[in-house]
Amino acid sequence: MSDHFTISDAGIGALLLDVAGDGAFEEARQARLLALAESFAAVDGIDDVVPGMNNLMVVFDPLAIGAEEIGRRLADGWRKSTATIGEGRSHEIAVSYGGTDLAAFAAGLDLSVEDVVERHAAAVYRVAAIGAMPGFPYLSGLDPSLATPRRAVPRQGVPKGAVIVGGGQAGIMPITAPSGWHILGHTDFVLFDPHRAAPATLRPGDTVRFTVARVEP
Amino acid sequence: MIEILSSGALNTVQDRGRRGLLSSGVSRSGAMDIQALDAANALLGNDADAAAIEVAAFPFRLRFASATTVAVTGAVAETRLSGRRLPPWWAIAVKEGDELTIDPPTVGARVYVAIGGGVDVPLLLGARATELKSGYGGHEGRGLKRGDRLPVRRRAPGKLPDGGVGAPPPPGRSDADRPLRVLPAAEWSDFSEGAHQRFLSVGWRVTAEADRQGCRLDGPELMRERRRELLSHGIVPGTVQVPPAGRPIVQLAEANTCGGYPKIATVIEADLWRLGQAMPGDELRFAVVGRNEALVAQREVADWLGRLRRAASLYRVS
Q: What is the CATH number of domain A90-215?
């Protein structure tokens, strides 16, 4: 496995370590990144450690700690990293399948609605990263036969609780917001509560299974 | 206690925002012009993290239910305290029943109104800032409307000089034509030489799609030589993304915490206020600087604020 990576400035107060290169998302690299992220959490002068999809952003106070030092720690840490992260917690999320997109989504893949629901609910997903919206999980592990390009024009108000698929990724909307992903169903599972000290319910490394509460035509 | 007499939904309680929660998908939020917020709090001797009102919809009026102090900074707008005009970037004592009126700005977009002690809305995730997009924080997670009553924290001891006192402008504030300073970002070298030249030479027009999440700019198309799909990654306020259509978007206080568009550059922290004060139709230019120059700029702002805080502690006689 090539160990190519880049480190770039995101302004003077953040560095982005990107280990994806031109490749597709890799589960093994993500596990190494999450272990690396944990090793940064307690460093003085570092404000935030933000795992993305095969990348990691470190936000720091540039008047307190040098970018060179953070960059060196990132490079060394990545080279030495191993996928030591534990299994994470597991969550079961009940889904009412149906609604706006499901029939058209199935037709576009030449599948029946039942096939789509079965394959979506059969997979074991891993939370690769939390971000974009409050508590939004980027879920890897989607059945490749359900991978579908995002909508050409995003929808303005995809509702909170929408269970969605975009490209090869799965997710759940934590708030009502614009999204170009396809809606397969709805859940009442709470992804985010600003009144908790740790506001996001899911964490990187957790596993998620969807269960079929019902299928609406 | 203060009572809102006239407002629009874009007027919100803001402080310096939330730090350290991007990894939970929590945007920084906070004031779009942090320097103006800092100046207002400094003039009153408030804590650095005290909350104020960010006014982006005008006219704005409020009434003071008790005697306190007020500071008004940010955009240049006609401001009256019970009929009396206040100079820009000014702090003054107010009596019970005084009314503050702020007209639409002549320069800039956002005015900051700080109250002695700070607006006392509950701390949420370490800050009092309103996150409009997600509907939490600030006053009930929403913009202010007529009839809202906001509690105020106990203010710093001492009183302001009769007639009030002003703040010197932050570094570079008077030079409206100065380009926004940027550092090249991850995909800088994916763009063609011509794209770099255009990015740094033309005046970019602020479109009507400019809010607390981001500012979409109009100008020539910026082409990439190397086109590749990026996986989602963390972004910070100031990130200049270039979506496939080739026109940049600058991500701001309430930006999503992750994005997937190529990033040509990042506006330095010291110049972010310019985007918070930009109006649709304004023209903005960009100039690349090195990390050291950006650090010097940030120190200059920190020094200016330090001087202002020291001066303010001297004139607040007891």
A: 2.40.100.10
